[in-house]
Amino acid sequence: MMKTFQPVASRPYAWPYTGAWTLADTALFLVDFQREAVAETKAEATVAALAPLLAAWRAAGGFVIHGRRGFDPHVGLPRVLAARNAARPLDRILPRGSEGWEIVPELAPVDGEPVIEHAGDNAFLGTDLNFLIEQRKIANLVFAGLRTEGAVHATMRAANDVGLESLLLEDGTTTDLAGAKDTILNITRFGSGLFGTTTTIAVLRDAIA
Asked: Isochorismatase-like domain location, by residue (predicted)?
């Protein structure tokens, strides 16, 4: 029988809002921990902090979803995204299969863990993510990823729109845009939890111990 966990201590309310949760109705979503993004955001410490949580989550039987931003080199990018790529030396959308596009080995998917390939910041847009969540009857998402103000926030907003309870790991996300992380954490928690709640890796790891 699947173990039931008590709500996780988080801000601005104990997550999930609905109360007790299980690993059957919850997924850990690791967003865009790709080689180039990790290097640009200097996220090596974030990756190292997440690796033990990922191991514990897997050992407990938890479901893991990975996001990986990129585009099909045979198709190219839509005009707006192509213009963005050309104008920005950092945070580029990379062609699938390129070296920087790969997920770092410390957080790489294992057999049975789906990878959501998305071209823009919102991992729900143009992908099977919502279908996957519905098929598995997932109600709760735990987010960690890069960049905080980019794919992480965009995907959390979309998760909120489809009625999911979202928890963002404060030390499981980072960015290279000054001030952006704190701003997004505050927006996430605004009011009664505009887009979800936030907590630390240690608190979540203790919750599933």
From this structure: 26-175
For residue 16, say if its preceding peptide bond is cis, omega within 30 degrees of 0. Answer: yes
Domain segments of the chain: what residues? 23-207
- pLDDT tens string, the chain, 209 residues long: the values are 679 999 999 999 999 999 999 999 999 999 999 999 999 999 999 999 999 999 999 999 999 999 999 999 999 988 888 998 888 889 999 999 998 999 999 999 999 999 999 999 999 999 999 999 999 999 999 999 999 999 999 999 999 999 999 999 999 999 999 999 999 999 999 999 999 999 999 999 999 99
Residue 14 DSSP SS3: coil
CA 19 to chain centre: 22
User: Are the CB atoms for 107 and 101 separated by under 8 Å?
Assistant: no
Closest CA to 77 of 96, 91, 90: 96
Q: How far apart are the first and last CA of the chain?
A: 16
In angstroms, the Cα distances linking 137 to 25, 99, 110, 140, 151 are: 6, 34, 21, 9, 23
CA–CA separation, 137 and 132 (whole Å): 8
Distance between CA atoms of residues 44 and 35, nearest Å: 10
For residues 122-132, one letter each, b for 16 or more C-beta atoms within 10 angstroms of the residue's C-beta and e for the rest, the string is bbbeebebbee
The CATH number assigned to the domain with range 23-207 reads: 3.40.50.850
